[in-house]
Design brief:
This protein is α+β, with helices and mostly antiparallel strands. It is built from four helices and seven strands, in the order H-H-E-E-H-E-E-E-E-H-E. The longest helix has 18 residues. The protein is globular and about 45 Å long.
Length: 171
């Protein structure tokens, strides 16, 4: 979407009861009237009257997660994946640095990667939400996504971009 309100609307994770879901829906919808959301609408010359939509998705408990840019904005000849162990909430809000993987779009070759020091990961909490847990020492310097999965992600998302006809950002 042209105006996707990136990171502006509130998200809620690890919801397991109807009451928690109803509360999360109300809070998510209400975030359409936050100062940041109103400022975004003004900045993009959008109608100031919010008409929020709430998306409910089944949640998985990921080994790793992040964002994939089928065309990396700074280098259009590349596809980029930025990921962390566990949930990517802190990656998305700028609180954590993730591993970065860059593919040459023309060849599909993973030609460079920057690995972060992964001392913690966000995991499901017992109650709604997430908790930070320490990572195992042996996984801290390893890529959070193994090469075979990275290669599959490249092929799948390259095909999606080709089919749509424009670059995609996929979380």
């Amino acid at each position: 979407s042209k105006n996707a309100f990136p990171g502006i609307m509130q998200s809620f994770l690890n919801i397991s009861t109807k009451q928690e879901l109803e509360s999360a829906i109300a809070k998510c919808a209400a975030s359409a009237w936050s100062k940041v959301a109103i400022s975004y609408r003004k900045q993009h010359n959008l109608n100031l009257i919010a008409r929020p939509a709430v998306i409910i998705q089944q949640q998985v408990d990921p080994d790793a997660s992040g964002v994939l840019f089928t065309t990396f904005p700074n280098f259009p000849q590349e596809m980029a994946i930025h990921a962390v162990l566990g949930f990517a909430e802190d990656l998305m809000n700028g609180k954590a640095e993730g591993d970065e993987f860059y593919f040459e779009k023309a060849s599909g070759k993973l030609h460079r990667q920057l690995l972060s020091n992964k001392t913690t990961a966000l995991r499901k909490a017992e109650d709604p939400g997430l908790k930070s847990v320490d990572t195992l020492l042996e996984t801290q310097a390893e890529p959070c996504i193994e090469k075979a999965i990275l290669e599959r992600l490249f092929k799948i998302t390259k095909a999606a971009e080709d089919r749509c006809g424009y670059p995609l950002d996929i979380e």
